[in-house]
Structures
1.
Amino acid sequence: MVVADNLKDFTFWITYPYFQNLSSFTLIFLLFGYSMQIFADFAGYSLIAMGLAGLFCYKFPVNFNFPYISTSFSEFWQRWHISLSSFLKEYLYIPLGGNKKGTIRTYINLFVTMFLGGLWHGAAWSYAVWGTVHGSALAVERFLKGKIKLKESRTISVVKGIIVFIFVTLAWLLFKLPDFSHVKAYLSSLKSNFFLEDNYAIITYILIYSFPVVLYHAAYLWKSQISFLAFRRMEYLFYGLMIFMILVNSGSPGAFIYFQF
Amino acid sequence: MIRRSILFTVICLILHFLFIKAVKPHWKWKATQHQWQENIVKAQKFIYGESFSKRKVIVGSSLSNRLVMDSLEDFCNLSFNAKSIFEGLALIKKSSQPVQSVYIEMNMVLGGSDPSFSSSIVDPVPFYIKKYFFYLREENQPVGYVGELASYKIVKPVFRRMKSLFGNNHGKNTSQQSPLFNKMLKNHAFEFNEKPSEEKLDQVFNLLKKEITYFAEKNIQVAFFEMPVNKSICNSMRAVAVRESFYKYFPPQKYNYIDMPDCSAFLTTDGIHLSDTEAAIYTSYFKSSLKGDSTLHHPFQIVR
């Protein structure tokens, strides 16, 4: 929550009309920061809920499983907001026929499921478009999977991971700006504000506050390596630092992003 | 594991305390990270009495936050970005500062009050914790110190180098002649050309009246001033409605006003915020208005 609450005060600039004053580079970093914030916020309070439930001997299922390491859109949805994606799969996608009614129907089912999943977040066109965009990505991915066979290698996985992350991050814009005209204005500023001076302070703080989220994902990937054991031995330093940051650098309190849905 | 984690936290806190004590007084970089924090730091400095010698207080929004305070040595500026005047007034009421006079900005009064802002500072728990453990105050956040330094020493040079490699120049500051300025001006003009409803005006001005009555009971002198804005906004529907409401609720015969200078002399950066040079010009005008007449009236061309 320290990460999300601090990032919130920078991603605030993704608000119409303020972002129109910022350079394209700054706008890109703001989107990156929002991607980190929404994860830290939502995964953070899911963990708080799990911890609280644990105090009463209830074991809640994991809701986020390192989503930003996903190398495909289908993997992303198996790792992000697992409770919602499982619900959509079991109560929408499978009843619609899933992948059992032919190739075209499978694409339509994916599209419809994600469109309705988008609308679940609110009665605004931008949420519907957000769901549609993800539905389209899942359908295209499924189509390409059947056509192109890529050799498994670390480089290809990294490239795929980057593509998925960029796509997901751009799509968050529809979450942050539910008014579709503001999304268009943001993209237009992104395209035309290259001549403006970058706001280095915003960029720096976004990089600093996003670092724990990046580290969290990197540590997961590193987990299988033997060198990770040395890191584990120093784990207490990270916990100590986290408590210190809660005490001295906790940021301003704000409502959880997902409380609006 | 838990014991070692807590021990490391204590070590970090001690190091942080030592840094604040020994290094902060010589630190030349800005340590606030964003405008919300700047507001909080300013409010904390006031509430913890770090400006006790300043008995004249300016309350306002981001517009009067541009005033050059080095020229107004006797003043404390409680103007907050993205806030109205009510946050400053609430802090004055809740502080034990011996305030002599309050100068209230007229422009952004319709923003209403945000009680959560002042309560985040004056509520007993944060107030006393941050009063006695000063190193937990917002101005002492460690990331603020690291961030500003990293921004100037690492991020800025790296990005500029990267951009020059891609053939992009360093970028230009937002110029008053740029298309962006015109866009911002148009946005603000559109916003200000909407006349506020009578209910809204009554609600805000009745609230303000209550505040002013409180100050009058405490023998605190009150004066109003209007920050100059771009001439296309100066006499907009909203600006005129607000101005007229001020004169209706607080008649100039009874209350002190520092009249707004001719707006055509001010271009502003976005329609409503003065540029640094314009802010310096207005600050000297503001100061001369105070010196020129003890009753705070000024023989300048007025906008009424």
2.
Amino acid sequence: MENIVIIGNGIAGITAARHIRKNSDKKITVVSAETDYFFSRTALMYIYMGHMKFEHTQPYENWFWKKNRIDLVKAFVTQVNHEDKKLVLQDGNTINYDKLIIATGSKPNKFGWPGQDLPGVQGLYSKQDLDQLEANAPDNKTCKRAVIVGGGLIGIEMAEMLRSRKIPVTFLVRENSFWNGVLPSGESQMINEHILEHHIDLRLETNLVEILADENGRAKAVTTDKGDTIECTVVGLTAGVSPNIDFLKESGIAIGRGVKVNRFLETNIPDIYAIGDCAEQHEGIGQRRPIEAVWYTGRMMGETVAQTICGNKIEYKPGHWFNSAKFLDLEYQTYGWVFSEQNKKENEQHFHWRHATEKICVTIAFDKDSKQFLGINTFGIRMRHEIFNRWLSEKRDINHIMEFLKDANFDPEFFAAYENEIISKFNSEFGTHITPKKKSWKRIFSNA
Amino acid sequence: MKAIKNIGLVIFLIGLGIFTALPLIGTFKLDQSTFDKIVAEKRIKSELFITDITKNVVGKEFQGMQSISPLVSAAIENANTQHVKNKEYKKKIYTKPSDMATLIGKRSGNGFIANNKGTMWFLTFGLGIIGALLFIIPNVILLGKKGIKNDGIYHESATNKGWVAWLVFIFLVGFYLILYFKSEYATNWTYLVDPISESLSGNPAGHWFVYGFMYCVIMTVMAIRMYIKYRHNMYQMVRTTSVLFFQIVFAFLIPEIMVRLQMPYYDFKNAFPLDYDFFFSWNLKQLLNSGGIGLFILVWGIVLTLVVVPVMVYFFGKRWYCSWVCGCGGLAETLGDPYRQHSSKSLFSWKIERWLIHGVLLFAVVMTGMTLYSFFAETSTVLGIKTQSIQNTYSLAIGSIFAGVIGTGFYPIFGNRVWCRFGCPLAAYLGFVQRFKSRFRITTNGGQCISCGNCSTYCEQGIDVRAYAQKGENIVRSSCVGCGVCSAVCPRGVLKLENGPLEGRINPTEVLLGNDVDLMELTNKK
Ligand SMILES: Cc1cc2nc3c(=O)[nH]c(=O)nc-3n(C[C@H](O)[C@H](O)[C@H](O)COP(=O)(O)OP(=O)(O)OC[C@H]3O[C@@H](n4cnc5c(N)ncnc54)[C@H](O)[C@@H]3O)c2cc1C
Ligand code: SF4
């Protein structure tokens, strides 16, 4: 029986394990150092905020693994020896494999800031980081202020977490508007406003210079490139993540920023694959980046590599880009590509609509010349993945999207609908006369 | 704002404290003339009982029901033992001791409480309502911006099975035990609402009126909490309004008014088999003797269960009943909302659920079959089993203990839908329709799920919603009551309750939307 070993029990490794089990009878072992069982990293914030307990973030009950004959080993792999096809663990034990999947995820970036390793300074990636935050910032008496460095998705989550315990938060963001390397300006601006509404001290275009220690060696303040010194008890470093692959440096496996893989998710060494956050494509697929540290990518790669390992060799071909996030109270979804002003190409044109009073907005990207629909960002309106996926595959033009926009709405029943408003703004901006079609179940479910 | 909340809490606790003390205090004195009336009304022929009560109770002043109740019980028991011994069966008293004590208690209260009903109402219900509202309303500001506000649920004693939760548990269980089994201790409570009862039905309040009134008050106050908590979510607002309307109008007002109009007491939305005694012979006889309206109720009751319920479930799912109309559901969705996270999501509890709820349905159907057979065949036994004893067992075990004591009492520990999930025979019936022939489903939005677990955690019916969502599958489960909270708490907009064509409603998938199209076709077709 072929012996498949997976390093990392995150979404990538576990999806691979589950699909290999579905399609084969191979021996499966998952080695991971962080927790006994798979949990949802994306839910870490909700534990601190008291929405859930840790156990709720585990998608499978504990008996699941034994029943599905997926062996779990809690250990840290220090070395991969591909000549003997074995792993060396921190405790000195070894594990042999026939095929190896590396799915070791990411670690928070640290850019060599002075004081970045002081007690009280931390990232937010692992369960251990969460426990540490609980110790560093249990309430606003222990933690008088927190400074968060890095305006990305994890940064804003961390700010929300701390605010849930009424801890004052200063948020240092390098850009001149929140996440505007990714979001178009209208959206980015709306989030700036929303961050301030949540009483977060947002400092745009501000970089961390140094973290200062008190007499006990704990972080007590940060200084910024604006010349400010901000007193604080906790510093959150959330300036992105990078692949967690230090243990592979001398293994002979080709690495760049991540583990280099081809479209079959194979590394340069036969029988070794890499998936999830830690995998780096030689070249980005379509408009994607070579490393995609998102949940869905890990899951899709897991699905794909399982096919290959079970004898049905398949290229990794992610479909249309989609993603979602939540910025404090604002839900965000995206389908296809909408680029920020900084990154958008010559031919990409945007239509933007924002509600007069509520924090709701939509940006639709389309080709200036052909009018082909390229992508949509929505804030505060949920959209149907299936419909946008279909429209992207069918290369529909923007007028079609507008006409049938109601089919794509995925908000709960009785919610106010904004399609009419959106479309009339579009009509007046582009001189069109589109009348929205009523939602049709038939269309929604046709060839879905 | 915090201060207002705290003041509210104190006022609420004072009201609750007085309410809780009432069963054990108050002055009672039974006059000879009142007792004579009771004897006449109840057609009591036992001179032993009459002498006993006349000697030991009449004319004396008692403090608290606990000092009279044992005397009444003892009087009945002694008299009955003696009569059975002497084979004087005609003299035997069939009224239960607790009911007799309730009757005597109600007619003999004459202290401060019985004489100051309005004041006492204010000190209990009034303070409770004012305090609760002061506690709840500041949340409009304290909760901040619109959105899901579940912060701290697992940090607080009340919502995380801490000591507060256990106190609430003890209080609720105690309350139901009094209500179902020791109603004489509810006597003082009935005084509080006598004026209200008299203005509606014309009769003084019994303990069931207290319950009905309290039910409405609690639901209203807790509905205000729902309105504030889910003020960004129109589905929750509309649903809460609906369930509140049906409770106040259909379950509370209409039946009382019908009594005033000399019609049978009937809740038009309470469908068999939840309304398990609908076909009991006393009810059938009452309906058949009530002329046109009785007949109408009889036909409506049957049509409701056989036609209205399944047809509506076909179009809208069982939510139209369980979380939009039903009283049990109404309490669960208002008073019970803070506890929804406690329903177990394990596969094991799902197994128990299926055995129990279908067992209760079977029990209800068999009991009703026996009841109807007995009614039409005019016999009291079926295959040698006494119909009455089966009915009594059901009433006690299911109607009182399961639905009441466990169903509501266990809210703070096992979640707010214990009865609806594990016990309600109507829910089981609706569930079959929903699972096999309904347009309702919770649609999963392609590949957007991040397996965070909020949906499963806040599912009051213990459905592991995430197990479906993370596979890209729609949720089609018989137990789903369509409360819509999974959809509300999902941070990624993955879930939508909707009614659509049957085809494609259940959509097993292996590879989620978003991955390569060939791969999806390959594995999903297999
Ligand atoms: C707070 C937070 C919120 C996020 N929210 C979102 C979101 O909303 N949407 C989204 O798309 N993405 C989100 N992400 C990103 C997403 O969680 C990751 O992309 C995803 O979890 C990566 O999965 P993975 O399986 O590749 O790696 P991981 O989940 O990191 O799993 C790798 C595992 O391998 C273990 N490991 C590493 N090295 C070794 C070794 N040498 N020996 C043994 N074990 C080892 C690690 O300890 C870890 O447990 C979020 C991330 C964080 C931190
Ligand atoms: S709440 Fe939403 S994202 Fe989270 S597990 Fe449920 S469906 Fe998935």
3.
Amino acid sequence: MSPIIATLIQIFFILLIAPLTTGLVCFVKARLQGRKGASPFLFYVTLLTLLKKEMVISNATSWIFRVVPFVVLGSSIALAIVLPLIFTDASMAQLSDFLIVAGILVVGSIFLVLGGLETGSAFGGMGSSREITIAALLEPIVILIFSTLSFVANSSTIDGILGSQISLSEPYLLLSVIALILVALAENARYPVDNPATHLELTMVHEAMVLEYSGKYLALLEYASAIKLTVFSILITNFLFPSTLLDASSWGVGDLFVVLCLGIVKIVLMMIGLALIESMIVKMRFYRMSEYFSIAFVVAFLSMLVALLSSYSSEPIKYHVIFSIFTVMSVVLLFGKVRLKAILRYYAFSSLLIAAIALSLIPLVKEEEITHLWIFAIFTIVTKTLAVPYVISHIGHAKKSLTNLPSFLRPGKSYFLAIILLIVTYFTLRNISIVGLIEWNSLLYTAVTLIVLGITMMIIKRNIFSQIVGLLVIENGIAVFVLATVGSLPLMIEFGIFGVTVATAYILAILSAQINDLYGSTDTDDLRELSE
Amino acid sequence: MNPIFITIPFLAAFLGSLFLKTESQVRKINLLFSFLNGGALIFYAVPFIFHARGKEISHWWLMDSFSMLFIFLVAFIYIATTIISTRYIGHEYEEKIINLRQYKLYFALFQMFVLCMILTLITNNSLVLWLALEGTTLFSTFLVGLYRKKTSIEAAWKYMILCSTGISLGLVGILLLSYGAHEAGVAGENIFSITALMESAHSISPNIIKLAFIFLFIGFGTKVGLAPMHNWLPDAHSKAPSPISAIFSAVLLNIALYAILRFKFITDSAFSDPTWTNNLFLIFGFLSVILSALMMLIQVNYKRMLAYSSIEHMGLILFSLGLSPLGAVAAVMHMIGHTFIKSTLFFGAGEILIQWKTTKVEKIKNMLTRARYTSVLFIVGILSIIAIPPSALFMSEYGMFSQAIVLYPVTAIIFFVALGIIAYAMLALSINMIFATEKNEKDAKNKAERWNITHTVMTIELIVVLGLAIWFTTSHGVSVIEDIVKDFLFIK
């Protein structure tokens, strides 16, 4: 059927479902917080009630105040028209160029800001100033995310990006999607950027701007934000599952029904996820907002960097490469940490990533090695992510005063040294040829860097716990080395090696507790009784 | 009979030591099992050593005359050490230096430690070998740190950290080697089998083999106590209970060397030329001897002196292994002789420690009057370890020098000087302890020492050394050792 009908169906679907979206979040959140909560369909009634109500508008306002609700609603609806939410290649698809989409978003927020300023009240101005700050921080991230995606998909429209079905075939695009989720949270004024449920002057952003609106105008504004939330949640799920979209030029009623049902499922799932996030984390202080956006920016930027590198080296980057990079990065971060808990957390995280490497190798190996990789991953998680950190922190923590761990180097210099080591290892490995290891190059590099970083850590850190973790990092390096070379060990041996790791950690933890008892410190420089 | 059954009596002794209630029960069960296990092992090993039984090679096990020679040594020292332990640790228990929990822990760990050494020797799987060797470190850490004192905990810490790191690097070497075999087309789990690797070594890429052997050598070399990686050795030997020092020095170091030698064979047959590995052996052997000669001069502690002497002898063995096949014969003789003499000396050191409660040489005087049996046996041991002629070590060192002076004259002379320094330093220290007198009335009143079980063991060991010295000179002895050498040395 014709693309125009497709577009119309899409708009009607979004307009119809939007109030349910907002209602669902409140409902699930209430349930998660142990309340009964209002019906998810309450928001329809709210909107209708608001439409019937009388409006109170300040005399001091100009025509802009009256235009704002329409422009904001218009921008939301425009998003619902151009973006590929249910159909790809619909009638307005060529308008979904990411710069245009970013422009539509900005028009919406600019007018909202103007509306907030219009009445001259203190709250409106405060909310506007906050909103425009956030919008300014958000803009470069949106551009980065979509330029990465369009670079990889070779198309500048979001429709084209989704149509080429690239998003998960290239693992680094997962980073872009993560950044997109972070952006979507901020754009829709949800946690941790804004609290949609408060009218507290210290925290509100979006609510402060619409504070002066009432009756029909308020209904329009609320409706607009509900539409925006719906659009973003469907868009993100579409990035993860691009095959759930219908082609606008050829579709049947049966397909349409399935896809609409899927759309509802997507919204329900996303809203449950959102409610979970909002129940677990708290709103950030406004001055820490820059950190949140830096994280989003770095994630988006990393994705772009890897995309560029991969196209430059004309070598496809697979999941295990991404996980290896993360493993090395978490060990480098571990390098500069001084608190035992932080060190153990980073160690556990890097071990978890090694398990992820093993799992991501599954599609690439022969049939009979798959079970080995599963066993390897499960053993790694059980022993190195859970048992070893528990053993060390349990025995080490029974004795207090382990928070301050001395080192020969300050954290900054440690990071510098770690990065130099990474570079040196890279060039050394380039010059040593090991036959047949081209395919698993990144794994070999990871293994060797982990071993080198572990040894360096044992040398430069003066603390006994750093030495233990250094030894454990070496063992992690060897685990990656197994994956890079022989692939799998006999089951009994694998079990034995993991057992040895736990036993080593246990014995060293006991010894360090005894050293701490006898010497009153955990500084290896104090171990000088035997220097004849 | 499947060799895995040997684990059962060891585990029984382990559990018995842990769960029996009183000191005498633990002592009896350990003596019983040590005679049982040790006797069975010796009985099993002797036919292999004299080639009355041929090699037995299976998927998991590798038993030839070389590994069985080591089994014999381990079994002998195991029995001797258990006897001495009941005397030494029992004495410390009576003096309340250690409590019953530590007493039981000592014997339990000791049994597992010996089991790990035996598994290292009879396995044909490189990874099981690695696990067992790492197991020796894990089980013996608390044996070194038995005394919960600053110094012993520090020694245990150094021992554990250095050896674990070293052996981890050894694992990298094993994996690289297996990977090379995998690339060369060795099938399935055979890539971890030592004998399969020996057979297919020539097809493995030389690049990988070289890299792998360096990792293995450095890694296991840490456990042997070779020169730049030796730091843990004097500390651990001087702070561990004396029977443990004895078993460390007499067999544990040799076992790490055994692992290196197995991989040396693979490397050599890959190059079909032993020169490369031999050079590595020569360099590290030389360094170890020189280092211990320098350190020996400043020793004030008799147990540390013995520990440095162990480094020296490991260096000597490595050096003569690197010389030539004839040097290897000398090296095997040296290993056997060193095992018996060094354990005798550490047993003697334990006896001195019991009576004087110090390891400082300067505080020990009048040994000849206060401890006549110990001092005589100790000085005989010292004379044997510095290779004064009737000793078995004289035979081996003579064989080594006759090779070295031809091949590397300058190095051989430096060696001579180094050995001279070591002999001087060891004699100077022990003569000071034994013959120096101090006019102190109290000492003279002390009762003369009674003959005890330690002296019996020491005497038996010294007699064995004398017998070995005579046997090594006969053609039968030399031919047996030569046959053993043929089992582990790659000869072009």
